[in-house]
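step: validate -> pass
step: tokenize input -> pass
step: predict -> running
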Amino acid sequence: MAKSETKRRTWRDKYRFSVINDSTFEEVWRIRMTQYSAFLMITFLVLFIIGATTSLIAFTNLREFIPGYPDVTMRRNILISAIRLDSLDRELALRDKYFANISAIIQGKQPPEIIVRQDTSRDYSSINFSSSPVDSALRARVEKEEQFNLTLGPSSHESVTGLSGMHFFPPLKGIISAHYDVRTKHFGTDIVAKPKAIVSAALDGTVIFTGWTMETGYVIQIQHSNNIVTIYKHNANLLRETGDLVTAGDALSVVGDSGELYTSGPHLHFEIWYKGSPLDPEKHILF
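step: predict -> pass
step: emit ->
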């Protein structure tokens, strides 16, 4: 019992630490504390040193001096490499999709379709589709413009031989700025139209290429039946992806002037290729 009381008195006893001038024996500085307060002060000091060191390492550039920790340049290179790797994976997927479509077309099969599943997490029953006056006016104008277009009705591809029964949908209505000319290797027709005009598909087919080139900007190519390929160049934006199935008149892109060469303003460069040879679009389409 006496030992425990002695220990308690030891923790409560106060001690004085002083600094005395050795020449004059004058007390310069002193402090009074118990063992308990000294323990708390030392603990707080240790925690403060640990916290300050951690903060300096976490929020300053001192962490870069730690062996094995990447510096700013290394982190930037890691981020750029990850972005490039993601882009490379996407391009490889598009290439495989392109080759699969080409293989199916060569074998006379239908290219694999993209199955779009409905999002079951949302309720679409409450959506009310109502026509607006602007939409009604647009529909009336389009129906009036296309009422004599022979491509609107269903057609049988089995009965078509060559180009004798093909009816091309005008991809764009506008002013022709450059004609088809084999001598200058201009294998298409340039059509100038209003800004943000929609480019349409000339025939039913499958998109076999969508991409960007330095010469012709955003390009989209469509494979049709009877070995016909149509090409649309200098687009501002592409609305389709490789592998999409399109119908004559479907929107493909927006008119633009993309590309660093062969362009002097917003227009569409349209080409028709039949069995590997270019055709004059003006002989088959009335723009």
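step: describe -> DSSP finds four helices and twelve strands in the chain.
step: cleanup -> pass
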